Structures are given as structure tokens and as C-alpha cells.
């Protein structure tokens, strides 16, 4: 039997309790959606993979290579917004429609103002992360970033490496957890229900994580695993891993959220 928990009084989204292994079902459905619309899904993912790769190359060209790891982590913070087109592909597949690249590219216009507000919120988290990461790097390395030829040795194998990594990873994990909590289902909801505002969507997202803490922790770990795999493949791997996670996130939303009539 499905148990629900109200988010707000009156007609509003309600949170479904799910089984701990449900994230694996979402991945399976995400893969199925990718197979149903491979051309549009991979093209969409490839575009953002190329954008990320170009920005990565720009950091390297400017000798800001010490920002490569923070930038890669920050790229994932914007993932829920970037994947909005993938949610639209899955939404149309659910409705037995044939999605196109134009549908994916213009998905934000279904609820422009509210999705844009979520984008602003995620951008604030991204800027905070870049600022904090730069500050942490400066504090541990005396405001002198290591040179490229000894970058790995200085960052990972010096006496200060352990506290630096603990502080850096810990700070990033806290920000990532907050982003996950507010965006786990909020952007798919805003896309699916244009009458919903960002406050309601964020409240529902936070509640969905709180009520289903164990399965959502597994889901967050799977997102990190797939995103990291795509990033480690020179960002190009995101052309496949990003669509799978994006489509799966849509199905997570549909399983987690129902609406009062």
C-alpha cells in the first residue's frame, strides 16, 4: 500500500513512500527512455558535454588548472537544471508522444519564470562553491597554486593534503546535499505542472528526501557515480550518462509525487 505525507494544506503535491531499491528501477526506466529516443537524448547530452569540455579547456589554457576539480564538481551542481530537456523527453514519452530536439531545447518555456528561479538558486550554490573552493585552496597552499608539473604531488601527497581534502570534500558534500534536497524533484515538477511555483516545488523536493532518506541517499550516490564516470571520460561520457540520469530523475519524480485533485 502507498503511504503519502502532505506537503502543504489544500490541493498540493503529496510525497509517496518508496522501497529502498526503487532507485534501481529509475535507472532501468531511464535506460529504457534513452533507447526509445536515442538520437535526441544523446544529442542533447552531447551538447552539454561539449560545453563542459570547452570550459575545462579554457581553465587549462588560462593556467587555472587548479580549478578543474572544483569546476567539475560545480558542473554537477547545475545538472538538475541542465537536464530539463531530458525531463521533457521523458514526459512526452510517458504521454506516448514522439519527442524532438526542439521539444528538449525549449522545455524551459513550459514554466519559464519558476524554472529560471530554480536556475538562479542553483547558480548561487555554484558561485558559493567556486568561491569557497578557491578560498580553501588559497588557505592551504599559501595563496600560491601549485604548478602543473607537480600539481598531483602537491595536492595529494603533501602533509597538508589530508586536511585540505577533508575540508574541500566536506564543504562540497554539504553544498551538494543541499542542492540535491531542493532539486531532487522540483524541476521535473515545475516542468510537469506549470501552475506550481518554485516554493511549493522545493518544499516537496525537501520532503521527498526527508521521508525517503535511505533510498534517496542511494539515488544521490548513483547520480554522483554516473556523473563522475561521465566527467572522468573527458566530459564526453556525459553524452550517455547524463541522459540516463536525466530520464531516471523524471521517473523518480513520478514515483515520489502525486497531486491532490
UniProtKB/TrEMBL annotation:
Pfam families in alphabetical order: DUF2189
Keyword Transmembrane: yes
Organism superkingdom: Bacteria
InterPro entries the UniProt entry points to: DUF2189
Transmembrane parts of this sequence: 42-62, 68-87, 115-141, 161-185, 217-245
Keywords, ordered alphabetically: Membrane, Transmembrane, Transmembrane helix
Record protein name field: DUF2189 domain-containing protein
Organism: Rhodovibrio salinarum
Phylogenetic placement of the source organism: Bacteria, Pseudomonadati, Pseudomonadota, Alphaproteobacteria, Rhodospirillales
